[in-house]
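A further point concerns the way the authors explain their paired sequence and structure data. The central task, working out the structure tokens from the amino acid sequence alone, is never made concrete. I therefore recommend that a typical entry be quoted early in the introduction. An entry of this sort, consisting of the sequence and the corresponding backbone structure tokens, reads as follows:
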Amino acid sequence: MTPKLAPRRAVFLALISLLGFLAGCATNPVTGRREISLVSQGQELQLGKEGHAAVLQEYGVYEDPALQAYVNQVGQSLARVSHLPDLAWTFTLIDDPAVNAFALPGGYIYITRGILVDLNSEAQLAGVLGHEIGHVTARHSAQQITKQQLAGLGLAVGSIFSETLARHSQAAQQALGLLFLKYGRDDENQADELGVRYSVLDNYDAREMPATYRTLKRVSDASGQRLPTFLSTHPDPGDRETRVTALAKETVDGKTGLIIRGRDFVQRTDGVVYGRDPKNGYFEGAHYYHPSLRFQLELPASWKYIDTNSALGAVEANQKAQLVMSMVKSQIDSPESAVNQLVQSGQVSGAEGRSETINGYPAWVGRVRVASQQTGTSQVLVLALVRREAGQMFQFVGQNTTPGDDNDARMIQSIRTLRPLTDGSRLNPLPARLKVVRVTQSMALADFLKTQGTLGATPEEIAIANDLDLGESVAAGTLVKIVTPARIRS
């Protein structure tokens, strides 16, 4: 006799029950409740450890020992009053211009120099760090992983040729994938509440926190920020500024002597790099220079360019073609042998091209056919592998809606302009930096900025960094952050 199929809901409930049996339950440190989790505390620690190494490789530590120590000091003090005071917490200021802060499981907290620029007190810094600590103590990442796995979704990120050429280990890629997950409304509300709670327990004035969210909103409105950014990965759960204002007022009620430290904090930001550091790549028209990696490249003219720490991209004006360049690790030193391995392993179903030398670099340039996991169909991509040094290659991947047309030719022509950067004047560019100056007489911020010569940011961007409006009067003696422009050494 053929058994009847169980209703879909019954199957789902049985699966949940089985998963709960296999994975067990975990106690949430914040709520004290037991919850189904596919991620044990040991796995959280391992994810954090693997991901931490990848984050440092992907973004880099900001090279200012005094600021690093300061961020760590504030973070460790907050962690001691959190729900997990005995966790081995790690706080890192990373070298990224995006306005962001994020956390990995296991107590790894990150804040970018980009968000540091737009904070104006130690209490605001404590609020941001406390919010991220809250995501860890409430196990929000573990809950996200569980939800994703129950839905049958993977978290891994990486190259389309990940087995042969990869930036990070599989575990590190999974951990990095957590940075791009959006927290839900309830998670954000809870992290806001915990950020307020931890701040006040550590004697900070949490009434400074709403100004942080107001500034972040202004940054978001003023200019597009690349992912991950605080407001994209930490979406507003609904009138956040008003809600945090009420939370802070209620939590602070009756307490005196709370810490703000505005002037001291602003002084600490003097000299912080503003925007993208040109040592990590900069454009002059379509010409791209990368001093740290010592290469230069000419991208297709009139295309849109995207430059991040992990990749360089060019997109045709009508989005009919795109070329992405990245650095990849390779266990195979010969570009041609690496392509052959891609074919033999089935990662590409065919390759047509040839080995050549591009301005001294051994290379393979051609086209490959790759199957799409989403549609089951295949597509032809432009591919170039260029050996930079032992164990490392430049990888170019070009995608085109009409393979073989002029856009293919433009991408291949661009790849062949790759060459070493040897010009000493371009190897040591000076970045834009914050400069803290004292206002000598009362005047509107806009008028004051006119007295400061050439600036490295727009007046509106500088106003946002100071949590001021351009028409707002600034009193004599006030410390104001301005931005000195980036320049090439002569």
Observations:
- DSSP finds 17 helices and 21 strands in the chain.
